[in-house]
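About this split. The held-out portion is used to measure sequence recovery: a designer receives only the structure tokens and must propose an amino acid at every position. Recovery is the fraction of positions where the proposal matches the reference. Here is one held-out target exactly as it appears in the evaluation file.
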């Protein structure tokens, strides 16, 4: 009985391999091709200008949209010669906007 089950299993596996290699089981679907848009890269970074109030920090204005290191790096790139930990109240700065 064990030999019969073993032989049937081998025949079934061979049939599956033959069928898969000859005919295939999953049809290839033609997906539409979309062109990559370079408009977002050409527009530059997205930011908003905010006048800082007393007690505000870069993280409190931007929120938790990304990693803190990336937020600080983007803030300092938008505002040359300004450190993220040295913003002053009453001054307007450019803050990065994340989707």
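Reference sequence for scoring:
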């Amino acid at each position: 009985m064990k030999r019969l089950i073993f032989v049937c299993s081998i025949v079934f596996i061979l049939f599956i391999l033959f069928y898969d290699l000859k005919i295939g089981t999953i049809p290839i679907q033609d997906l539409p091709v979309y062109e990559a848009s370079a408009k977002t890269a050409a527009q530059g970074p997205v930011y908003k200008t905010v006048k800082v109030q007393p007690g505000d920090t870069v993280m409190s204005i931007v929120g938790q949209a990304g990693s803190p290191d990336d937020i600080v790096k983007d803030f300092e790139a938008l505002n040359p010669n300004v450190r993220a930990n040295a913003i002053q109240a009453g001054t307007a700065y450019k803050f990065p906007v994340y989707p």
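Annotator remark: The chain has a mean pLDDT of 84.
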